[in-house]
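Subject: Sanity check before I submit

Could someone independently write out the structure tokens for this chain? I want to compare against mine line by line before I put it in a report. The sequence has 145 residues.
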Amino acid sequence: MWRTRERGGREREIERDREREREREREREREREREREREREREREREESERERRRERERERERERERERKREREREREREREREREEEKERERERGRERERERERGRERERERGRERERERERERERERERERERVRERERAHGT
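---
Independent answer below. Compare away.
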């Protein structure tokens, strides 16, 4: 009788010990699950952080490409301004050459007028000499008769 009670008490004690052990095991399992969940959360955060870094790098590359496009547009505008300056200088040189040609034509016309006046004076002198010869012939005829 006493042994039965004792045995029953021990069995209940053993059963309680087993139950406590099962409870501790379930608690450890819950803790492991919570740890796995924390690890999954850390992994999600790492992935999100990596995606954000990639997005930021891409935005930076895009900003750099935009800066490069802007520099290229500025270089193109500068080349265009340089071409315009060169063209204007060439037009100015051409206008200078045209003015010089015009002055040369004016000088040539002036020289031609000078030559024409000289030829006219020469013709006048020739007419004067002819008149003089005519007068001499007249006098000779007059004296000869």
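---
OP: Matches mine. For the report I'm noting this point. The two ends are 212 Å apart (CA to CA).
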